[in-house]
Amino acid sequence: MNQPSENPIIWDTQMRNCAGRLDRGAAFAHGREVSTDDITKLLEAVIEPGDRVCIEGNNQKQADFLSRSLLKTDPSRVRDLHLLQSVLALPEHLDIIERGQVSRIDFSFSGQQAGRLAALVEQGRITIGAIHTYLELFSRYFIDLTPKVALIAAQAADREGNLYTGPNTEDTPAIVEATAFKNGIVIAQVNEVVDKLPRVDIPADWVSYFVKAPTPHYIEPLFTRDPSHITEIQILMAMIAIKGLYAEYGITRLNHGIGFDTAAIELLLPTYAAELGLKGKICTHWALNPHPTLIPAIEAGFVQSVHSFGSEVGMERYISARPDIFFVGRDGTMRSNRAFSQAAGHYACDLFIGSTLQIDMEGNSSTATKGRIAGFGGAPNMGSDARGRRHASPAWLRAGREALRNGTMPRGRKLVAQIVETNREQMQPAFVERLDAWDLAESAGMELPPVMIYGDDITHIITEEGISNLLLCESAEEREQAIRGVAGYTAAGMARDRRMVENLRDRGIVRYPEDLGISKRHATRDLLAARNIKELVHASGGLYTPPRQFRNW
Amino acid sequence: MEQFTLSYKTSPRLQEGHPPQLCGVVASGNLEVLVEPLDSADLCLIEVNTSAPGFRLIWEAVLSDFVERNRVAGVRISINDAGATPAVVGLRLDQALDAYRSAV
What we know:
Number of domains of chain A: 3
Low-confidence stretches of chain B: none
Number of strands of chain A: 20
Strand content of chain A: 15-25%
CATH superfamily of the largest domain in chain A: Glutaconate Coenzyme A-transferase
Strand content of chain B: 25-35%
Number of helices of chain A: 19
Helix content of chain A: 25-40%
Structural class of chain A: alpha/beta
Oligomer: heterodimer
Shape of chain B: globular
């Protein structure tokens, strides 16, 4: 009992290890500042084999210079890495795997690299720990996947190493907090080194090194949708969403997915929704990236508040000029934060609505296709019932009443809607008997088919044929028919039991445009508050500056 | 290219004598629909010209639903299709018939 042991336990091995790394790194740094030419040597000095390394790859902002520098390191020294990062966005992220320096990867989203990643997995050249949602991966940074080395991106550093991340703060706070306070090394690439920062987003004390990148970090304009590509079918679906869902439940707090279907809804708020007298009654508070297509609704006074996961290229001046709407620092630029916005979307929004590629007859939806490991991003967090939520709102309570089957305890329910055209281009059906996710799981050796939104989380499905309310279905059989009943002329839709669907329609579970008092004749592009990018610029009073690829005038 | 004509026997029309109406354009993924009066009051004739062969069963399903949904009779409908999805076909047909019925 309480005898001093002969070999006392050492409680600060990690701290000593970190100090050793900093000692080795000191040879290549002046204080915290590393010169551009020395960055590869610094990485070789501070990274050890087997390290968990987070290369900041956000949805938008990319630590691209540090990624390229990692590729120049000696593979005999920098090896056996375990990459943990939210997004595998850059070719370099896959190049480092191909060079054999990475043995394992945990991530959330791979987007453009999905095909290459699937090939590397099939060749056995990389093991995937798990594919996460953003919040899930950030959470694991603080439990069992804490980075040893974080390579991050910021707009600017001062001489001390304080960082200004600006509008695209995104994942940086979550990554740095986990790394810096668990004896890790934080290395930041910055676009410029200045004497005084506009504001401090990350204090110097949490930063080990910073380096000025030869070129500004890459930012992907991921949330810009050109209204000129919005179709009449998408406009019809937007009318169904606004009248059959938003107005019905009085949804004020929400998150929209990325895509033209939801962009159409945003552009119908100042026109169609306003005509229905819904201004001030729906869509007032958002967890949303600064979508350019939301500008007309903001200008029309529909929107009261928007918190963002990241920023959007070209929206900076507009955001700065609308601090009543966006979260803007005293310096005049926005601060985004992916972790907080994801939590906000999960707990404080009453509706998530997004598009998908495939929905099966249980309502499970997936964007996975064979040969592509694309991951999840944030949709599963937005698009699931928040079981830990305890505050009430009218929309949440109504959905909860509709869902109540057994027992008597009242409880609310998040509204989770999928909005999808029944056939995509080349007649690819959005409704299927079996998701491609099953094949992908088999070919990539996954434990689970990658499902974006589970069927039991979905409450509504909207197509051009109509809207189904799955909350009101009394049985699995009714749910299936409610899904087939809006599945159009896909094989799954044509296999419907017409009598059952008519019965569901009589009970208001399946509703078609005519049941909602929507005239399809009005589903024209004239309803869009802006019909092209130029009109968005005009609506913003010239404050929105679209990226070059979206300018055609 | 595929071409076929479908004929639907329905209950007689109530209104008559509207001027022909053209709706939509022949562009990729789109279609053009012409609605004209027909002498037989209890008949709906639909002629389909489509650039995408092999979808006749889906056309029949879309068109019979359209005729039933709108109780279409006493009209001839001509369709020039450039690979529109069933969703676009249904929407355009509804729009064309709406325009026809409200034309004086």
